[in-house]
Amino acid sequence: QVQLVESGGGLVQAGGSLRLSCAASGRTLSRYAMSWFRQAPGKEREFVAAISWGGGTTYYADSVKGRFTISRDNAKNTVYLQMNNLKPEDTAVYYCAADLRLTTTQAYNYWGQGTQVTVSS
């Protein structure tokens, strides 16, 4: 099994930047695709970004394209989400997910507990 722990969330003003991290651990490690999702109060969880195991394939939601960058360091078992030019609409709990299959849907086997990102106006 795989455990995922997010970190790096916090409170920032509009236009600011933040980098989220997701550390993976477990007795066995596979070539997992990784993804970031977010959920705002009263709304459904939505896709943000995804990356293949080798990092050569990435996908982004239209709402964050050009502002957010997903990357990973397999030697550290960590995936990152660099968020620039943050907007109040980005306020949400951000979750990382992992699975053997790369997808933009919520069909991932492993999920972290989430980290809060709040962008003030």
The percent range for helix content is under 10%
What composes the largest sheet? 7 strands, mixed
Low-confidence blocks of residues: none
Number of DSSP-assigned strands: 11
Q: DSSP helix count? A: 0
Shape, per Cα inertia axes: globular
Average pLDDT across residues?
93
What gap, in angstroms, lies between the N and C termini? 40 Å
Strand content: over 45%
Spatial extent as radius of gyration: 13 Å
Instruction: List SSEs in N-to-C order.
Output: EEEEEEEEEEE
Q: What class do helices, strands and sheet pairing give?
A: mainly beta
Q: Care to describe what's here?
A:
This protein is mainly beta. It is 0% helix and 50% strand. It contains no helices and eleven strands. The protein has strands spanning 3-7, 10-13, 18-25, 33-39, 46-51, 58-60, 68-73, 78-83, 92-99, 110-111, 115-120. The strands form two sheets. Strands 2, 4, 5, 6, 9, 10 and 11 form a seven-stranded mixed β-sheet that branches. The chain has a four-stranded antiparallel β-sheet with strand order 1-3-8-7, with no helix packed on it. A hairpin with a 4-residue loop joins strand 7 and strand 8. The N and C termini lie far apart (40 Å). The relative contact order is 0.32. The model has no long low-confidence stretch (mean pLDDT 93).
Keyword list:
121 residues; mainly beta; seven-stranded mixed beta sheet; four-stranded antiparallel beta sheet; 0% helix
Offer a quick outline of the entry.
The chain is mainly β and 121 residues long.
Set down the secondary structure blueprint:
Layout: E1 3-7, E2 10-13, E3 18-25, E4 33-39, E5 46-51, E6 58-60, E7 68-73, E8 78-83, E9 92-99, E10 110-111, E11 115-120
Parallel strand pairs: 2-11
Antiparallel strand pairs: 1-3, 3-8, 4-5, 4-9, 5-6, 7-8, 9-10, 9-11
